[in-house]
Amino acid sequence: MTVEQSHPHTKYDSVVSQNEAPAQQPTADLTPVRFRPLSIADTGSTIEARSSNTPPITSSKMLAAQTKIAIPRQRVATAPRYNRRVPRACASCRQRKTKCSGDTPVCRQCRELRATCSYPEGWSERLKKQVETFSEKAQEYENLLKDLSGIVDSSAAERIRSLLDKHGPDVDYTSNNSRSQSVTPQDDVPENDVSSSPSSIGSLEAIDRVEEDINRSAHTRATGYMGKNSEITWMQRLHREAEQRAKGLPGSLEPGQDPKIDNAVSLHAVNYHLDDLDISMPGPVQLYAMPPREVADHMFEAYLTTVHPFYPIINKPLFSAQYRTFFDSAARPGDKWLAILNMIFAIGAKHGHLIDAPWRGDGKDHLVYLTRARILSMNGDVLFSHPDLQQVQVEGLIAFYLLASDQMNRAWRISALAVRSAITLGINMKSSSPATPDISKEARYRVWWCLYTFEHMLGIMTGRSTCIQDGVCTSPFPLPFEEEQLQEPTAFEVLTDTILRDERINNVMASACIRQMPLHPANGKDGSHHTRAQDTKWLKSLPVNYALFYLYYCDLAVVAQEIVNKVYSVDCVMVPWAQIESRIGELKSRTETWKSNLPTGLDFPDKEDKGPDILRCKLNLALHYYSARITLGRPCLCRRDARRKGTNPSFSHEMAVVTLESARCMLDLIPDEPDALQLYRIAPWWCILHYLMQAATVLLLELSFGTVHMPEEEKNFISLSKKAVRWLFAMSGQSVASRRAWQLCDLSLRKLAQGMKYDVSDMPSYPYTPEPTSTVGSEPAHGQPMSHAATAGDYSAPLQEDLPVSAPDAPPAEDHYIYPNITTADLMNSLTAEAQDSYFPYDPITGEFMRSFFPHSNEDENWEC
């Protein structure tokens, strides 16, 4: 019986029991494989073997396989297993080494365990953040290198530029991160302009070169070189602008475009000073002659009242005593002392002519005194001799007289000689000599500060580099006490204690750290430096006097000199404009600190009337302060406004506004109705013309630019310009230089009015005619020409005759100096006395006794007393 016959077919025929032995051993290919699972390879090989060796399955087996029923899987109530792979496990699961579900923000395991769940950053995210961090650092380093490229020397700057060019072609080295916000002056400086040189910016154009031949004629040599911070150079720019406006053209005519205009607007053509006039006397002078005592007293008093408080180059009580002794005795002083006295007479006589004093002499009397002083102290032998303190005083007084006579170029040369003589004697340094009395040291300090402030003023007027460089001066500031007060306890305490002097005076002034100011201060445009209130408490507690004024005047002079050194020096041509802005901002904060330190009695905005002496001090400080701010902001005052549309004003725009506001405030110091005589009595008459010309030129320049910085103030600027011109016109009655200045400003204003339709019908006018004399001391007269070396459009007009104005004589100042009352005989007999003789007061200037001023002489000299 076959297998099929012994086992009938059922629905489970395909299931073979494990205990059932087959009746017939099947072939090897049909042997079932029991429990061993098949791998993919086994399955493949088995299928392949079966497909190749196994005979076809019978139809009954195939039918049985098709009748199988699938049993469904029983559902389990437990949670499903998480077999999926997550991108990254949380930190908690990693620490426990368990499988993380990857759920966010909290995985299943951390949720069940109530553990903190946090996923670490992936590799790609970490890499991305690192790249961003490195990029930010690289950008910061690059910006730092850009900043340093404008600070370091040229070789280091070149290395920085090469490095930045190597790794980034589009690099701007001129500012922080981007171009400076002040796109100043000469409009549209390209953003990739690496140097960003200020040579094309504002008044700093061509600051490192001379644009005309100064040596070509006597007139050009008389004027000399004028730098960019001189109002003469500003006037030259104004005339070019006015010429273009008169022709209806908006732009300025740059030098070199029209030779005719260049010759007509050369520096000597716009110079209002009198260096082209001679200052020598045509005939001989009596060397030892003296004016009458009454006239001498007036000139001496005029000097002590109007000049000495602002230029204390002599010791007032000592020299006053010597002056009285000289006129009351028959002794003859030394030549240098006589030279000092003659220069005092020359300066006093010059002031007498300006105020039409009834005691004034003829128009050339001051030249007579100057000639005597020159022969007595500055002949060939003296110039080749070694200087002493009296020689320094003589040279300083001669320089001052030349400035007061508008002989700017000559004053410049003599001032340098005085400074050199002073440095030769070491009075620019702090003295620690035990052999020199403290009062004598203080007198020498004041001599030095006279020369310093005077040299600074000449540098501002001419735009030239002064001969007093940084670090040459260690002389302490003068004490805020008059010469007569130095023996009082309060003054004597500070006089004898150098540490206390530094603590109370030298270290609290606005200029105390000016020389430590960085060459390129960081965030200078936003700089703010304020001296602590308690620092100046002692100074502010002192009574206001001329000495306190002079202390603050010297302090401001140091700050203003730093403006010239940091903004107008020739090395600024290689400094990026952004760095110039930082310097300007830092120096602006210094000037504001100086003003905030002023005592209440010297605060010039205070209108309280405290007498003519305080008025003189406040007016002088105010003029000096506004002049410094005009000089500081002038480079930012340009034809095209640096104000960016739709944004906050740029720094350069703000500084241009500061300049214009300072000019306005300067003119607000004087009345609207001109009174030249009163101005010469109260104001610093030797330099008031310079201050007025600064303000007038700045305002006229703004008008020539179309009032681009303050368009809403155009009418006010026109009114202020007219006021300045009227004052110059009024002053021209007593001063040839004022007449020249008036006609320069008047001509510019009329040309601007012609092109810009201003009304100038209310302005005074004179017919321009040529002029008379070739010497300074000539009296102006109606209808006579005045020799003014000028070109087309620059002529002098006739001056008004001197109008005798009756003015009460100023009472002589009370002499607080205790001087022994000795007779002439006693004085003459004492010439052979011992050096310790009490009848001879000690001279703190020379360190010698008074007999050095009165040497015995048997010579018969011609004296007129």
Automatic annotation (TrEMBL):
Give start-end positions of Polar residues composition bias. 15-28, 173-185, 193-202
Is DNA-binding set as a keyword in this record? yes
- Keywords of this entry: DNA-binding, Metal-binding, Nucleus, Transcription, Transcription regulation
Enumerate the residue ranges of region (Disordered): 1-34, 167-206, 769-791
KW Chloroplast (keyword) present: no
What CDD domains is this protein classified in?
A: fungal_TF_MHR, GAL4
Under SUPFAM superfamilies, the record lists: Zn2/Cys6 DNA-binding domain
- What are its GO biological-process terms? DNA-templated transcription
Q: Where is the Zn(2)-C6 fungal-type domain?
A: 89-119
- Classify the source by domain of life: Eukaryota
Query: What PANTHER family does the annotation carry?
Result: ZN(II)2CYS6 TRANSCRIPTION FACTOR (EUROFUNG) (PTHR47654:SF3), ZN(II)2CYS6 TRANSCRIPTION FACTOR (EUROFUNG)-RELATED (PTHR47654)
Recall the GO molecular function terms of this protein's record.
DNA binding; DNA-binding transcription factor activity, RNA polymerase II-specific; zinc ion binding
Q: Name one Pfam family in it.
A: Fungal_trans
Biased amino acid composition, Basic and acidic residues = 1-12
Give the classification, highest ranks: Eukaryota, Fungi, Dikarya, Ascomycota, Pezizomycotina
Which protein is depicted?
Zn(2)-C6 fungal-type domain-containing protein
| SMART domains associated with the record | Fungal_trans, GAL4
